[in-house]
């Protein structure tokens, strides 16, 4: 039986309160210095928690690692919980997202080891090819700054739009230089992009949300991110100062083992790609 606990965005309020309280407490109070208990890892349900639970079931015991997995359904609570010590690590994000999060929220999360890439894809219930999108079509994109920029770069890479020169990881629709199809953009929470497919002409969906909603990126995406030189690999992360926690080191080694690589390749069939 899987020892996972599902958390919704209601965790945010509790996480924010805990962060405020722990700022006045000792390291012991925050749980950051105690390495004797289980390593609690916050993760998105798919594929992160699935990969962690494979490790828990098949590899952790032999490695002497007591691993507990907690599932979160948003992209904010895992970092706030890691910052306040509610969990010892998280596994759900990429470097541009983390850089943006740390900058905006004053957190101190750092990457430990990159495990996999979830290619971002464009999906539609109305057309079978990207170039079949009609003039004035509405495309849903994630509303967080990093994933929105990533979505626009995907569309630009496939000739649907052209972005202004020098646009980085904070691109918005206002940074579009050319829009030959006069596409309209609907900004929605990343987790809601698969659900928006019945209401828009197409949607750019993060790999984990695509998989959890029953989409198969390698098969169903109209266009899909290339894995080559891709900066959006997902990694295990901790609060700065906890990188040398022996439990974290054990998990990092297990997450980049041949057994995990085979599990990812067999289970996700190209929709999730090992990055090691």
Automatic annotation (TrEMBL):
<dbReference type="Pfam" id="PF03180">
    <property type="entry name" value="Lipoprotein_9"/>
</dbReference>
<keyword id="KW-0564">Palmitate</keyword>
<protein>
    <recommendedName>
        <fullName>Lipoprotein</fullName>
    </recommendedName>
</protein>
<dbReference type="InterPro" id="IPR004872">
    <property type="entry name" value="Lipoprotein_NlpA"/>
</dbReference>
<keyword id="KW-0472">Membrane</keyword>
<comment type="similarity">
    <text>Belongs to the nlpA lipoprotein family.</text>
</comment>
<keyword id="KW-0449">Lipoprotein</keyword>
<feature type="signal peptide">
    <location>
        <begin position="1"/>
        <end position="23"/>
    </location>
</feature>
<keyword id="KW-0732">Signal</keyword>
């Amino acid at each position: 039986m899987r020892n996972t606990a599902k958390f919704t965005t209601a965790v945010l309020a509790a996480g924010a309160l805990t962060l405020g309280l722990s700022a006045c407490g000792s390291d012991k109070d925050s749980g950051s210095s105690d390495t004797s208990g289980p390593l609690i890892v916050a993760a998105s349900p798919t594929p992160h928690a699935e990969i962690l639970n494979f490790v828990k079931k098949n590899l952790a015991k032999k490695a002497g690692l007591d691993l507990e997995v907690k599932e979160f359904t948003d992209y904010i609570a895992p970092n706030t919980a890691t910052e306040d010590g509610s969990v010892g690590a998280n596994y759900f994000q990429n470097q541009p997202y983390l850089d943006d999060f740390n900058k905006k929220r004053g957190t101190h999360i750092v990457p430990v080891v990159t495990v996999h890439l979830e290619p971002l894809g464009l999906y539609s219930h109305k057309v079978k090819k990207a170039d079949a999108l009609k003039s004035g079509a509405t495309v849903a994109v994630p509303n967080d700054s990093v994933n929105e920029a990533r979505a626009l770069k995907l569309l630009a890479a496939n000739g649907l739009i052209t972005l202004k020169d020098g646009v980085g990881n904070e691109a918005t629709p206002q940074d579009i230089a050319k829009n030959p199809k006069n596409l309209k953009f609907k900004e929605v929470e990343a987790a809601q992009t698969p659900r928006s497919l019945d209401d828009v002409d197409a949607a750019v969906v993060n790999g984990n949300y695509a998989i959890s909603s029953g989409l198969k990126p390698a098969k169903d995406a109209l266009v899909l991110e290339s894995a080559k030189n891709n900066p959006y690999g997902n990694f295990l992360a901790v609060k700065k100062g906890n990188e040398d926690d022996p439990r974290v080191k054990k998990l990092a080694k297990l997450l980049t083992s041949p057994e995990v690589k085979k599990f990812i390749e067999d289970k996700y069939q190209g929709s999730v790609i090992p990055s090691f």
